[in-house]
Amino acid sequence: MPAGVRATGLGAGGSKPGARDADRPGGSAPTGRHPGRASGPAPAGRGVQPADPAGSQPAGPLARLVACPQEFLRSWPAQPLLWHTGQTFADLLDPGAADVLIEERSLRLPAFRVIRDGSTLPSTSYTQTARMGQAPVADLAHPGRVGELVAAGATLVLQGLHRTWEPLVRFCRALAGELGHPVQANAYLTPRQSQGFEFHYDTHDVFILQVTGRKAWVVHEPVFPLPLQDQPWPARPESATQSLPPAGEPYLDVVLEPGDCLWLPRGWVHAARTEGDLSLHVTLGVLTRTRHWLLREIVDQLAEEEDFRVSLPPGFARTSSGVADMVREVAGLLSAWAAEADVDAMATTVRHRHLEQMPAPLRRPVGSALSAAGIVDGTWLRVRSDAVHDIRRDDSGLVLHLGDRELRLPGWLQPALSSILDRERLRPADLDEGLDAHDRLVLTRRLCREGLLEVE
Ligand SMILES: O=C(O)CCC(=O)C(=O)O
């Protein structure tokens, strides 16, 4: 258990804003609570995170967010959960980083937006035109106007930080590797006594990391459970009949403070408001693959089967019963195919398609090309074993999955490759698995250019 990580479960009528101070590290925790045990005033069975039964934790990024990564990794928690981690998330992003992004990194739409009272303000009110080389660029952040809008009560949203802010680039990649699903990051900077969005739900699961200030969150049970990406709130037919905020007691009504991490599964309706000072939180969105995603992958593969490429007859949609006949026919073909399908071959294809869509290791293309050329037998190299998502053999030799690309190597390099990936650091001279001096340098320079090795 990492020092200071605590789990608390909160349910309907549970903690009200400001009511949780006794749970905090340094607060007067009620007798019987201790790090790693579920705590907080949750009614039995609701939102309570059980203690880690094994008593040990993997050391990945998840251990910074939740009390019990092993339990979390067993299955996605279906209810909101809150952890007082007792640490800061400011190393991932702080208000100064927001200034750097807006003022020094020439942030462009859609990497940021400004919202107030539930709506995105017209971008012309906070962008400017400037030249980059000869080209005019019309959607650059205007630092002064962004600052004025935030001072006047608007929320600055920084989007796609898993691509633009290095600490979050690294953290999200590592978290995606641990969860096995892609992860994205946004941040919300809200001044005092203000609210950004109205009540809404997200179509992906999120971890909310409170960095600075305090923000009050009200969370209601889903009105449409487990929405998919193309089923956002306003598009649902339920929005005509459901009111927002939903009627009834909230499931959670709580103030997040620096170091708090809230897990909100997709579909849970929420809104957040600052009370005192400016608040900054980072939202890590987990783009979970679903059964529907798997079904789509399977259907994509059915394009290889001639039976499923057959044209529907002329006029097939003239009547509903005509379409129903087609539906029955295709459903019949599908179950016949499923009974015979080579599930293992399909699983291999689906797995590799998924791995291709996972984030690639940072390759540092310019730096690694330069440093690779300088590698000699005595150069110390660090091994980035997290860069390899998968290794397999096929007829042509070894295939390494590196996120968005594959690296093909001759099969006879397998012993040398295994020896490299088993270590944390090495010098080419340490490789004696049947490689001569020339081969050692060719291999290590190539692995450096691909991001598997880096020069210390
Ligand atoms: O801070 C807000 O206004 C809402 C933020 C939000 O919905 C989120 O982080 O998912």
Give a topology summary:
Layout: E1 6-8, E2 38-39, H1 62-65, H2 69-74, E3 81-84, H3 95-104, E4 112-116, E5 119-120, E6 127-132, E7 135-141, H4 143-151, E8 155-158, H5 161-164, H6 166-179, E9 183-190, E10 205-212, E11 215-220, E12 252-256, E13 260-264, E14 269-274, E15 279-286, H7 291-301, H8 320-340, H9 343-357, H10 365-373, E16 381-383, E17 390-394, E18 397-402, E19 405-409, H11 414-421, E20 425-426, H12 437-449, E21 453-455
Parallel strand pairs: 1-2
Antiparallel strand pairs: 1-3, 3-13, 4-5, 4-8, 6-7, 8-9, 9-15, 10-13, 10-15, 11-12, 11-14, 16-20, 16-21, 17-18, 18-19
At CATH level 2, the architecture of the largest domain is Sandwich
Residue ranges: pLDDT <50 for 5 or more in a row? 1-7, 9-58
Indicate the structural class. alpha+beta
In round numbers, the mean pLDDT is 84
Structure annotation, total helices:
12
Radius of gyration: 26 Å
The oligomeric state is: single chain
CATH fold assignment of the largest domain: Jelly Rolls
Q: Globular, elongated, flat, extended or rod-shaped: what is the shape?
A: globular
Question: What does this protein look like?
Answer:
- The chain has 456 residues and is of the alpha+beta class.
- 27% of the residues lie in helices and 23% in strands.
- It contains twelve helices and 21 strands.
- Helix 10 (365-373) packs antiparallel against helix 12 (437-449).
- The longest helix has 21 residues, at 320-340.
- It is globular and about 70 Å long.
- The protein binds 2-oxoglutaric acid.
- 2-oxoglutaric acid binds at residues 155, 188, 190, 195-197, 202, 206, 208, 270, 272, 283.
